[in-house]
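Archive transcription. Copying these from loose printouts into the bound notebook so they stop getting lost. Printout 1 of 2:
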Amino acid sequence: MKLPYKFYILLFLFNISLKAQNYQQNLSTIDIEHYKLAIEVNDSTNSINAKMAISLKFKKNVTAFNLDFVQKDSTGKGMTIEYILQNNDTVPFIHSNNTIKITTKKPNLTDVFTYTIKYNGVPKDGLIISENIYGDRTFFGDNWPNRAHNWFPCIDHPSDKATIEYIIKAPDHYQAIANGYQVEETNLTDNLKEYHWVSTVPLPTKVMVIGIARFAVQNIGETHNIPVSTWVYPQTKEQGFYDYATAKDILDFFIENIGEYPYEKLANVQSKTRFGGMENAGNIFYFEQSVTGERKHNDLIAHEIAHQWFGDSATEINWPHLWLSEGFATYLTDLYILKTEGETAFKERMQSERTTVLNFYKKQQTPVVDTQTTNYMRLLNANSYQKGAWVLHMLKNKLGDEIFWKGIRKYYETYKFKNASTNNFKNCIAEVSGKNLDTFFNQWLYKSGHPIIKTSWISSNNKLKIIIDQTQETTFQFPLEIELFYTDGTSEIKTIEVVEKSYPYEIDVKGEVKALNFDPNTKLLFELI
């Protein structure tokens, strides 16, 4: 997910307080394997009629289990359950506190059980029913972080992955897009059309979506046997087709560097998402104004495509590890810019991202792996995005390009379609590199802050004496490149391994030094005072 710059500050002020939910009991009780959602929308009301069949296994012998599902409230929004069936038998349930408690007999732990939930109502969130910028009615899923349970019952947590299929009924002037591949499109009576989409790989609920709108659709071909398409509003289809066509080349770059694309297709969709882009698996939703006809948002497209591997397929095990999604997508976008626009553009991006991190720290001193923040929207910050990217950048400089990419591929191959923690990622990189990375990960990810250094130096008799003082509370260990400018007009770069809070270094030089430039190649996240 990427935030449009003009919405970034507004998102921080977003005043919905999301309570931290304890999913451990749900996750330890059941394992959902498949969702089958039949949903019907209409043009006369914002109410949906739906039936969800959930196939699951039990992990424990229990008499009841819970699902997340928002109930109807005093505003008239929310869902009302008509009935719940197991096979053809009615099942007792209680729907309260946005949870369904479903009674069951002590189950066989080896069998798969299917529970069918029939319900209706007006979604409070998650499925956004509104008008687009041209006044046309639209229906777009927008689930991040845990808003899916506003419109379908589920375990709304990234660590419970399942396959999903959708049977969508909508007025026949709409088209429908969803995860997976389309297996059916049928004209029904009463001006209705039915679409059937199936995803064959497990997804977290945050990226399970449908989109229903008037679309102009362009199939722009395949790369590595993956069909790529564009879905935009028909009023500006030429501009949208032009803007989103870059997705095919971007997809090439990531497949060639990371590995096989994880989903059945890549559809790029103009939508009503509240975010700049939302990385829904196999069908990315972009904010409406991303269509300009000028390709102003190639970095946004790259960011969301990178998420298909990191965030969607290899998913953070819990919200504090969000950098494994957002930091990865940010840095992989930077590397795509390096490939397509060159070293200067890449360094400018890294410098800009460093400035963002330093400014954020002045307002909030939290680590990247933040276990204290329970309002998940507040995790969409510079730590998860730009600092996460900088951690990967410094890791690449520490290991070298070849080992870095080998480690990224190892991590992805190990955790594709699964969930991972920061420690899991560290172990993969350590295995590939043969290095102990405990200090690196601890200081950059589990502690807040960055090196804030001041220096003093003197040059004489072919020696440079320099004192490096770290003024922040935590002592960091890092290599510091220093560019030396000589009085004869030449220059060279020396590297100091900084390991102490304050230390006087002595460097052999080849003449009288007149000036120093710290970190000339933009390799270190630090602040110079």
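Printout 2 of 2:
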Amino acid sequence: MRTHYCGELSAALVDRTVTLCGWAHRRRDHGGVIFIDLRDREGLAQVVCDPDRPAAFGAAERVRNEYVLRVTGRVRRRPAGTVNPELRSGEIELLAHEVEILNPAAALPFQLDDENLSEMTRLSHRVIDLRREPMQRNLKLRYRTAMAVRDYLDAHGFIDIETPMLTRSTPEGARDYLVPSRVHPGEFFALPQSPQLFKQLLMVAGYDRYYQIVKCFRDEDLRADRQPEFTQIDIETSFLDERAIQDLMEGLIVQVFRDVLGVDLPQPFARLAYADALARYGVDKPDLRIPLELTELTDVMRTVDFKVFRQAAELANGRVAALKVSAELTRKEIDDFAPFVATYGAKGLAYIKVNDRTRIPDGLQSPIVKFLSTEVLRTVLERTRAQDGDVIFFGADKAAIVNAALGALRLKIGQDKNLVEKAWRPLWVLDFPLFEWDEEAKRWSAMHHPFTAPRDGHEELLESDPARAVAKAYDMVLNGWEIGGGSIRIHRAEVQQKAFKALGISEDEARAKFGFLLENLQYGAPPHGGIAFGLDRLVALMAGVDSIRDVIAFPKTQRAQDLLVHAPSPVDEKQLRELGIRLREKPRP
């Protein structure tokens, strides 16, 4: 029905007759001449409808926004002074010979160029939202990213292998989405949280370089970078150690950015141990573009008179840390930070404003100065390298609370005060603990997943001292977003059983949940490991958007609803009876 896309027209086609199909983006009647901006996925072309062509002109008079049109005409140069340099087709226009209305359109629920749309409106009318240029740009970016990933992995010997969407429920950290079986009443499939177990089994089967761009499902609380269904670039290899995998995957991301954005990421990527990331930035996915770091003060505060600092320093898992800020802060801004950090569990936010660092304590402005000795204050200034005009914020509590509060404050101040460097700052975070203590359940849980291998020589710590066991795990972080995480896997059945025991998973439970994995690990499992990148997060970063919903064609809301098709939705009683399911009223809290 067409010879070209609208956005493909250029001066090279002048005097050619072409046929375009698309939507009437805008119609303008200039007193005898009608202009129509015709739009398709590749861009806009200006169509000129002249009264000298009565049939075409008559059709153009009936056209309204978003009508679907087929236009045939001659490409000509625009008159001098009317060239639009922002359009690929901006040098030319199409003089219409024929205009065919393929389908009229009802009035849209919103204008495509409206930049103040609520997300509720956009998601309720997602099909119309997807016509907007930002969404078309984002989804094409996503496509090019996926193709660049496939090209790189194919060139490095990886094979794309599908794994099942209907599998068994296994404890992997989040809640499973369950699918009832009609054929086996009372039994359920689960949608995969990841292909983790299957890709390990593929390594046992000898497919030593596997990948898959795959949907995964987790029934968890949502936020801007989470969806109940999301897309992973899932990768597994055999006979490669941690560094070899990291180098290979670093090359993947470098190639993707070069091919898709024309950007050369700095290489080699920075490398940071997990413990150092928490100590310096408060989080395990630090944004290195912000030139602010935490300073350790726990040792200094163990003997001070200030009770808040001393008690935190004396806790077995306590921490006192400082965040020095070299930016102009008003008293109101400083006061407003206290309720901000309270959302992360902090009970308060002490500070010192440095007016004259040579005069201690008189040159320091703060309610807490009188509780700290001159020697302690001098140490604080030396360690933070504070200068006149700086403000030092303090966190004192359990280490987890201090890290969360000061880490979030670091980000907020960096963004509010325009301290964020305009750059790409990739990072590998390494040496994660194998386990973390679940205070509520009073047991160890896997920091990554139960199949992560311990560092060589740490196998015995699985039984004797799980807190000290370090994982062969690694995360790739970019500008404060974790875009990928992976590890070397446990490939020996006896080590896997020790890991299950440390996690409080009994032999019977392990056999019931993971018997197929444990059995196949006995049949010559090779050393193997891999990584999974979040495609949605990666594309969101590349597109410069704040939410992964802006790079997914049909996303869910933060309440896990699809406003376009109104899902989830009730099903009729007949379907439930076929599945042997009876609904109960949810008890009131």
